[in-house]
């Protein structure tokens, strides 16, 4: 162990400008420890440098992948935000559509009532189809001309409220459709039935003229000047004026008699008949199917007549009735 006690002298000689030489001594043990420590530190530094160099590429790759992933996530978030915006716009559009459909269904309900009134059917006041007060008189089919305002993001509370309102609107629409559909079908059947009834009911004037010269019932006969029963009404006109079928039906008889002159008789079913007398010319024949408003003859002055006119009769189950209540509209109307 003598080497441990050995000492080594070190001299530090400065440059030529300094004449002082520094001398110091280190024991062998201290010098050994210093060398070992230096060697250990150097080895550690070399190991760290080796490890760093070995993993530097992997760290760079991970950084690159992290940057790419970050970019992808940002893109995904941006697309999600855009998709959410599109969904919000779609919900707003559906909300407008729901309100528009409610208004149109309210119009359908009004139309149903009008159809019943036109057809003379009783109307129901139980309809629950009503336009929204805030939408009354408005339409969603508008142009954007003149529109403006600050563009602001949609608050979540407002979006949630709109979703709830739209869901409620469509739920109401489903209920209203279920109510309105059978009603409209019933109205359609009733209107078609009424239309069929009206088609065979003599509701139009058989002539262009509306000037009645002799009413139905007891009157003074123009030839004998005695009280006699007049089975129809007389409508004045000019010879050759058109005479129309007052309702759908089948021509059952045509001909010429001393009192009637040229005449046409039409059966409309259900015991209802109309007769047209004193005609100038007959333009139909027995067995012919005619529609309301079809031309069947020309007004004249034949038979027991004092001048050009049409003697028009309506009979129900074989008995003559006053034609005047049946005369509700002209052929064009």
Describe the fold and architecture:
The protein has 333 residues and is α+β, with helices and mostly antiparallel strands. Among the domains are: 2-78, no CATH class; 212-326, Glucose Permease (Domain IIA) (Distorted Sandwich). Helix content is 42%, strand content 23%. The protein has 3 helices and 14 strands. It has helices spanning 2-5, 28-119, 156-199, and strands at residues 7-12, 22-27, 212-214, 217-220, 227-230, 233-236, 242-244, 249-257, 261-269, 272-282, 289-290, 295-299, 309-316, 319-321. The strands form 3 sheets. Strands 3, 6, 7, 8, 9, 10, 11, 12, 13 and 14 form a 10-stranded antiparallel β-sheet that branches. A two-stranded antiparallel ribbon has the order 1-2. Strands 4-5 form a two-stranded antiparallel ribbon. The termini are far apart. Mean pLDDT is 80; it is low at 134-143.
List the helices and strands and how they pair.
Layout: H1 2-5, E1 7-12, E2 22-27, H2 28-119, H3 156-199, E3 212-214, E4 217-220, E5 227-230, E6 233-236, E7 242-244, E8 249-257, E9 261-269, E10 272-282, E11 289-290, E12 295-299, E13 309-316, E14 319-321
Antiparallel strand pairs: 1-2, 3-6, 4-5, 6-13, 7-12, 8-9, 8-11, 9-10, 10-12, 10-13, 13-14
Helix pairs in contact: 2-3
């Amino acid at each position: 162990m003598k080497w441990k006690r050995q000492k080594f002298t070190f001299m530090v000689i400065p440059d030529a400008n300094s004449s002082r030489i520094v001398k110091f001594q280190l024991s062998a043990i201290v010098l050994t420890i210093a060398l070992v420590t230096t060697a250990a530190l150097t080895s550690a530094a070399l190991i760290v440098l080796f490890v760093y160099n070995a993993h530097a590429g992997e760290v760079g790759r991970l950084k690159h992948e992290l940057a790419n992933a970050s970019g992808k996530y940002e893109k995904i978030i941006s697309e999600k935000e855009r998709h959410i915006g599109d969904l919000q716009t779609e919900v707003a559009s559906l909300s407008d559509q729901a309100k528009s459909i409610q208004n149109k269904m309210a119009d359908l309900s009004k139309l149903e009532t009008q159809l019943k009134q036109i057809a003379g059917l009783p109307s129901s006041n139980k309809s629950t189809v009503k336009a929204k007060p805030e939408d009354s008189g408005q339409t969603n089919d508008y142009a954007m001309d003149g529109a403006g305002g600050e563009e602001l993001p949609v608050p979540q509370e407002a979006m949630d409220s709109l979703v709830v309102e739209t869901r409620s609107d469509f739920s109401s629409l489903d209920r209203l459709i279920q109510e309105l559909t059978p009603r409209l079908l019933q109205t359609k059947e009733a209107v078609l039935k009424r239309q069929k009834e009206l088609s065979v009911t003599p509701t139009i004037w058989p002539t262009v003229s509306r000037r009645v010269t002799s009413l139905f019932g007891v009157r003074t006969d123009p030839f004998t000047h005695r009280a006699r029963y007049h089975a129809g009404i007389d409508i004045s006109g000019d010879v050759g004026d058109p005479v129309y079928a007052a309702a759908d039906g089948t021509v059952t008889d045509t001909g010429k008699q001393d009192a009637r002159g040229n005449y046409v008789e039409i059966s409309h079913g259900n015991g209802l008949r109309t007769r047209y007398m004193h005609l100038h010319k007959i333009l139909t024949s027995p067995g012919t199917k005619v529609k309301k408003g079809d031309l069947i003859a020309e007004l004249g002055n034949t038979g027991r007549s004092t001048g050009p006119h049409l003697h028009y009769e309506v009979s129900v189950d074989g008995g003559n009735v006053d034609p005047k209540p049946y005369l509700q509209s002209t052929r064009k109307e």
